[in-house]
Amino acid sequence: MRTAIVVACIALAVPGLARADRRYYAWTYNASTAEPGGLDVELWTTLSQPRPGAGLQAWTHELELETGITDRWDVALYNDFQREQGGSLRYQAVKVESRYRLSQPGEWLVDPILYLEVKKELVEDRPWAVEGKVIVAKDVGPLNLSVNLSGEQELIPGGGTETEWGWYGAASYELHPMARIGGEAYGFWSKVGGEPYGSSAYAGPALSLAFSRVWLVLGASWGLVGTGDRFRARAVMAFQF
Asked: For residue 6, what is the enclosing H or E element?
């Protein structure tokens, strides 16, 4: 995360115009898609600190390559790596993601985007998992409001299934075309096999910086209720070509 911040500071010193298709939040998606024909290289770093006695602290690193197919549709490939406390870095999963914009920005009352992700986790050799999201956002002057709803179905060894529903809500304010500050809250309901649903919820601040063809998002969130992690932090840095 420190490396990402240093590189971002260097990039911010280069003259240029901020790109409009950047992320505003660490976990919540705002209504943006990649530019057609371009290439976005995104570096994700996430720290997860579980509650006492609930597991080990872990770092997850993701390399994302994303391109726009049209001005409404993009596709991305992710490679995920994870390192638990005291362990070595492992190749965790490969994911393919696609987003489709239902309207042009500002054309409807809100800006809706459909999201689909297919994932193959390799650490435990799990079968494929599929996740869908509905992304809705609204810009009111310098204020952005974003809401996501998600559902994921994952097969687990032995023939069982794991189901997870998620919600995300975020708001941010543009202090300057290069800087936006805000906050987000999100939570999950998950169920494994015939067990009852378990829940978790998080909230925290988010900072988005953009200049030239680089943007950086920093976010932190604390566990509020449920059996999820005690604390999470994330940095996402993108280089747009």
From this structure: helix 2-12
Quote the radius of gyration of the chain (alpha carbons, Å): 18
Give me the helices (H) in the chain, please: 2-12
Q: Which of the four pLDDT bands, split at 50, 70 and 90, describes residue 14? A: very low
Residue pair 201/185 in contact by the 8 Å Cβ criterion: yes
Retrieve residue 21's tokens: 């298709």
Asked whether the predicted pLDDT for residue 219 surpasses 50, the reply is: yes
Measured distance CA(131)–CA(118) in Å, rounded: 6
Q: How confident is the model at residue 19 (pLDDT cuts 50, 70, 90)?
A: low
Residues with Cβ within 8 Å of 195's Cβ and at least 6 positions away in sequence, in order, are none
Do residues 184 and 167 touch, judged by C-beta distance below 8 A?
Answer: no
3-state secondary structure of 3: helix
Maximum mean pLDDT: which of 20-24, 123-127, 142-146, 194-198:
142-146
Q: Are 171 and 203 in contact (CB under 8 A)?
A: no
* Interval 149-176: pLDDT, tens: 999 998 776 667 889 999 999 999 999 9
* pTM > 0.85: yes or no: yes
Token reading at 20: 């409009």
The domain locations on the chain are: 2-35+97-240
What one-character DSSP code corresponds to residue 21?
Answer: S
Query: Backbone dihedral region of 226: left (phi > 0), alpha (psi from -120 to 50 degrees) or beta?
Result: left
Phi, psi of 96 (to 5 degrees): -120, 130
For the chain, the helix, strand and coil percentages under 3-state DSSP, each to the nearest 5:
5, 65, 30
